[in-house]
From TrEMBL:
It comes from Piscinibacter aquaticus. Pfam families: Usp (PF00582). Belongs to the universal stress protein A family. Residues 2-140 form the UspA domain. This is Universal stress protein. InterPro entries: Rossmann-like_a/b/a_fold (IPR014729), Universal_stress_UspA (IPR006015), UspA (IPR006016). CDD domains: USP-like (cd00293).
Amino acid sequence: MKILVPVDGSAESLAAVRHALQLIRSGLKSSLLLANVQEPAGLYELLRVHDAEAIARIAREAGEHLLADAAAMCVAAGVDHEIEVARGEPIHALLDIAEDEGCTMIVVGAHGKGESEGRRLGSVAHALLHDAALPVTVVRVAQ
């Protein structure tokens, strides 16, 4: 079993990591795949940096930096984990990662603050709930 946990470095995404670790401590036999998705470079970046390899390297380093705390939590808990930094539109990239890596579950933090369902959950969590072909658990941070 492998649980995909999208991580953007926020308190909400780290709460999702803690929840996934708790599931494993409770007896679920699984590893974690911590994933960060870097959106494609915008026009400004493309005009300023003409080297596609440099842009890819910078995106990878930024993603790895955002995954560092989550990976440290896994190491401290003694839980097997992998990290993946992808580039692209977040929802599609996460769904592709889940499928390509054979994930059996997604645990995602809720970022939303509005009145509608999508705003209460956050756009990524809402889209994953509706579009993923596997179970999705949304973790809210206590207010």
